[in-house]
Amino acid sequence: MSAYSKEYALGPKARAQAALKQLAADIQSGVVQMSGNEPKMTLRVLRSLSMSTDETFQELVTKWDKGEITTEQLKNKGRILIETKKPKPLRRIPTDRIHHGTPLEIAAILEDLPPEELHTFLQHYETQDVFFADSDPNIRGGSYDEREHTGARPKASKSKTVYPNKYGPPGVTSISGHPRGTRDPFYNRSDRPITATDAIKLTDELLKQNAIDQDLARQVAKPRRDWINNKLVEQGLIDEGVDIFSANTDDATLKRVAPYLQSPDIQRAAAEAFKTPIRVEKGVVRYNSFDPISAVMPTIMKNRISSLTGIFFDAYDKETISKFESGDVVGGSLDVATAATTGAVVGETAKRAGASKLLGTVAAPIQAAGLISEGREGSLTTELVNKYGPNVGMNQERPFWGTEFGEMQTQKPGYVQATEDALDWVGDKVIEFGKGIVRYVGGGVQQKEEERKESITPYLPNIR
Predict the structure, then answer these.
(1) Contact criterion met (CB below 8 Å) for 44 and 23
(2) Cβ distance 447 to 424 under 8 Å?
(3) Strands 143-144 vs 97-98: parallel, antiparallel or unpaired
(4) How far apart are CA 13 and CA 284, in angstroms?
(5) Could you count the other beta carbons within 10 Å of the beta carbon of residue 276?
(6) Is 169 helix (H, G, I), strand (E, B) or coil?
(7) Cα–Cα distance between 107 and 133 in angstroms, integer?
């Protein structure tokens, strides 16, 4: 059975639509004296009534049609219905907002559709399980933290604690359910269809963009939703694998979990479980959920030389350089940060294994010569030489050795060879000392360990 009755659409519903439209016009013209926000609220109810399934407003419309309530009462009661009565039991966390599955803006675009054309339009999408406005299928499952919904924090309240206002990281408007803002310019359409055929053609286009926006909202909401689902599983309130945010969740389950999700501790923890999205890569949201520098800063500060060495080994390569060159500053920076973190962990591990003396002495020629691994396979010097020619980096005072031996076939200085050998040797030793904890592989000239020691000895006499 259809959710839309033609008899209702062309009868009571059509008459209620006309009455609300006239009320909005009278308020705007001053014929009816009401506050400045009333025309907007009247249109909000009108558009919801027009596009929602029959059951949404049928009780109110029937009372109005029988003369039991006035048009103004229909508007006021309609507001309570769509702003409080229907969304309240569907909010998983009390401060959540309901994000409509198909955007409310579509109702404004189609407000000139005659009743019969509108009925045809709604039945067309019903066959595709697509619903509009405040229809139950369009709001069920749409419970979002405001940061997930619009990227903003919800407003504070004098009467209660609004946890997402006070706790957790900020949201990002461009990575939210309304990535272009709540006054979305995408839906500012001058054309107003007056036939179902034209309306369907336009709406199909709008729904393609909406699908992208909805997917973005779900991805942004995932960390907090996963946390809430896991807590409910721990409490035995839902089974493993159940998603309490699914549109298919029944009312009995929502009532069962509601008391737990309304507790202050859970509300605060849920607010803190939100993760700030930092970028979208090919439609996939990436989160700032782990900052390698901040997470191990104490270790890095205690192992500065090891961190530097880690960057030489793991971040000074073509792949990382190309990220910076292509504008992927975040990606390149994360490579460097991760390398520094790896080096710090290696240093800490090596210290505990008695290798601090080794790491300290190896650092001296690295810092003094300022070589930064130039000329090693995949280094920046080699990359620049290949791109811009052999003279890159040359100057009268001290040409870069990487250019000299790399492109001009000049013999590599002894201390350069020694530094490379030191890096390679330390790389091997770190693996040994780390006992497999950290995978840390040095590149460069391939020599047997004894040959490396022999090369290093003249320049690093403290190594034994």
Answers:
(1) no
(2) yes
(3) antiparallel
(4) 42
(5) 17
(6) coil
(7) 7
